[in-house]
Amino acid sequence: MIHLNEQEIFILGRPNFACARMAKLLISSGLYEDKAKKAEYEQAVFIHWAMDLYGKHGDKWTYKADEILQDLNEKQKERLGIEGGAA
Question: 4: which residues sit within 8 A by CB, 6+ positions away?
């Protein structure tokens, strides 16, 4: 019998609409190719990225994810000439 832990359920069970913002940031930052403007692709990007972080950082993967997303967001704001606040 396959057992999924709470973190795996959180990542793999995430609905596509809940993945969009993070996936769009990962794509626009160049970490993933801009292959398809579809919710299914965005969901796949998020799941792939999150599972990779989970594999590397275990239960602390969300802290690393927040750090990476904040860094990408700041870099994108700089590139677009936006100051302060969340984009």
Answer: 12
pTM: 0.86
Q: How far apart are CA 20 and CA 63, in angstroms?
A: 19
Of the candidates 20, 22, 17, the residue with the CA atom closest to the CA atom of residue 61: 22
CA 48 to chain centre: 9
Please state, in angstroms and rounded to a whole number, the distance separating the CA atoms of residues 78 and 53.
25
Distance CA(45)–CA(68), nearest Å, equals: 15
| Tens digits of residue pLDDT in 14-70 | 999 999 999 999 999 999 999 888 999 999 999 999 999 999 999 999 999 999 999
Q: Any idea which residue has 């302060």 for tokens?
A: 84
Q: Which two tokens stand for residue 71?
A: 């860094």
